Amino acid sequence: MAHPTLLPPTAPAPASPADTTGIFRHFHTPHLVLGHPITGRQVVFGLLLVFCLTPWASPPVALALGLLLAQTLGNPFARQTKMATAKLLQYSVVGLGFGMNAHAAVQAGREGILFTVASIFGTLVLGYFAGRWLGLGRHVTHLISCGTAICGGSAIAAVGPVIKAKDEEMSVALGTVFVLNAIALFAFPPIGHALAMTQQQFGLWCAIAIHDTSSVVGAAKVYGDQALQVATTIKLARALWIIPVSIGTALLFKQKGVKIKVPYFIFGFIVAMLLNTYVPALQPLGPIAVKLAKIGLTVTLFFIGAGLSAATLRTVGAKPYLLGVLLWGVISGVSLYVILHTI
């Protein structure tokens, strides 16, 4: 798997409050190394990235390191990591397909289909009324609802152009779901262990109640391999709902001539899973592909954390967070209750 080439940014990132005082100032001062200007924070970023490639870095640790970097020194490669995050996640998801059996995936998908349909439509309806109650704009409400109902940032990125959302509306919605994703990645595994959830139960709960695919896979990976397989399969099946929801959004908002963004990487995951199941000659390569995919996922979460600057968190405001927490709390609580009593 190719990793992004880290180049000095074309323009300096906006300074955070910590940049202007004390020791942090020195990390922004460039020094010539072999004829190239290098800053201390670029070195720190590189060291953290290398650590994320090692077996000692778990997804939650990688996310925490990214968040710590973003809140202190700032991300010196913000433009590059933003461009690399989506592709790296997609490649990682496809790689996970080489560790899965198609028959088991079909069984997991069959068990999760009713949960998926009910939770998506229930979240969208609740989001509509909760947004009106909070006095939020229609676009922001719909974006946060879609992000919570389907697959976080990917759903927001797909639905935003359909409703012709403004940049600030997209930023608010993305900021909301990314913060909740970070919380879920740390909170879900301990909750699962405290409730003695099985691998099947936890994987299903992750796929339904956590927004982004990256955090779903990260939390499930911490819990166990079976949970990872269940969560990945159901989450990707859930992500395909981006297509009908985008079409329905275009009709609801009376938008014509809009282009629907299709998550094609999901089909790559399906192909990888089928190859692993039906082509025995490729099966020895499966563990290698899965190992690289898990490393890619860990690096993805480090990049996501490094992109959550203090400025990003401040732009969201209280009401969007309240809507996001309300929807997330309902979908997490209801799905947890149903799963514990039916699975």
TrEMBL record:
<feature type="transmembrane region" description="Helical">
    <location>
        <begin position="88"/>
        <end position="106"/>
    </location>
</feature>
<comment type="similarity">
    <text>Belongs to the UPF0324 family.</text>
</comment>
<feature type="transmembrane region" description="Helical">
    <location>
        <begin position="320"/>
        <end position="340"/>
    </location>
</feature>
<feature type="transmembrane region" description="Helical">
    <location>
        <begin position="265"/>
        <end position="283"/>
    </location>
</feature>
<protein>
    <submittedName>
        <fullName>Sulfate exporter family transporter</fullName>
    </submittedName>
</protein>
<keyword id="KW-1133">Transmembrane helix</keyword>
<keyword id="KW-0812">Transmembrane</keyword>
<feature type="transmembrane region" description="Helical">
    <location>
        <begin position="143"/>
        <end position="164"/>
    </location>
</feature>
<dbReference type="Pfam" id="PF03601">
    <property type="entry name" value="Cons_hypoth698"/>
</dbReference>
<keyword id="KW-0472">Membrane</keyword>
<feature type="transmembrane region" description="Helical">
    <location>
        <begin position="112"/>
        <end position="131"/>
    </location>
</feature>
<feature type="transmembrane region" description="Helical">
    <location>
        <begin position="236"/>
        <end position="253"/>
    </location>
</feature>
<keyword id="KW-1003">Cell membrane</keyword>
<feature type="transmembrane region" description="Helical">
    <location>
        <begin position="43"/>
        <end position="68"/>
    </location>
</feature>
<dbReference type="InterPro" id="IPR018383">
    <property type="entry name" value="UPF0324_pro"/>
</dbReference>
<feature type="transmembrane region" description="Helical">
    <location>
        <begin position="295"/>
        <end position="313"/>
    </location>
</feature>
<feature type="transmembrane region" description="Helical">
    <location>
        <begin position="202"/>
        <end position="224"/>
    </location>
</feature>
<feature type="transmembrane region" description="Helical">
    <location>
        <begin position="170"/>
        <end position="190"/>
    </location>
</feature>
